[in-house]
Amino acid sequence: MDPSRDLDAVANLIETAFELKNDPEGMNVVHNMRQHARMLASADATFLDNLSVKASYSNGLVWEDQGQVVGNITLIPHTDGFRRVIMIANVSVQDDYRRKGIARELTIKALRHCRSLGVRDVFLQVRHNNQGAIQLYRDLGFHFLHSVSVWRLRPSPSGLDELGKRGAELESGFSIRKRRPPDWDKQKEWLDTLYPQKTRWYAGLVARHLSPLAWLNPFAWPQVSQTEHFALRHAKTLAGVLTFQRRSPQIDQAWLALPPGLDPEDENQRASMLLRYFVRERWNHGYLNMDFPLGHATQGIQEAGFTLAHDLDWMAIRL
Predict the structure, then answer these.
(1) CA-CA distance, 228 to 209, in Å (whole number)?
(2) pTM to 2 decimals?
């Protein structure tokens, strides 16, 4: 990929292929790509501007036919502790060119490139219902890790009053207060079960920043100061914890920790009470994302006003 030539075309391709018009997070990425493309084309762009944009967007491949970009694959470098990993993203092909093996060839070439860089662990997310893409990745050696639902809460004046009223409703015997320091051990145990360590580097869930002891680390203060925790109790027993993280200018994030092994009715009930309380008491009416394991607490999350963005399968390969 040559950002100075391809960036705007790739942005158009991604927007169309993933139907992003109603996806504010996705459209923000596309908007940034187009903005950087205009920067590269500007006569006022400095050498450092060009260098910065090209460094940000050069990790990828495009498929070109007669001078037109018709396919793309993006490689996003990450670190997991001291380990280098790469996330494959934005695998997209123009409608007229699909089912011609382009996505397969782009992925094969991308994996060869990762190997040449010395990266051994490559991850990707694929839509849970995209069986064709899932089979392609399986054929290339990727294995399934876990599935997640991505939920979004969006500003919506209509319905907020009703959500607020229901937010005050707690089932008999339940209460919600700020999290106490002794709650952390259970919360961490539940988070470790619900948000697997293998992909946590991408999700942005940093357990040490959620610990009550995080205030002892001055480097963590910016994150800790933007984080709130709400604990649901039944009598004196911890029944669930909701963590809210402000991430301006990025979309805010919520983490829901519930005990494993709950029956569906209890799981939905606890999720609903925590999330409805948050909507009433603390939500700033901005965009909010929350990941949660696929098929869990669906009804309770929806009762709090969240809508399903998409279901994703995590897959990985060891090169």
Answers:
(1) 11
(2) 0.88
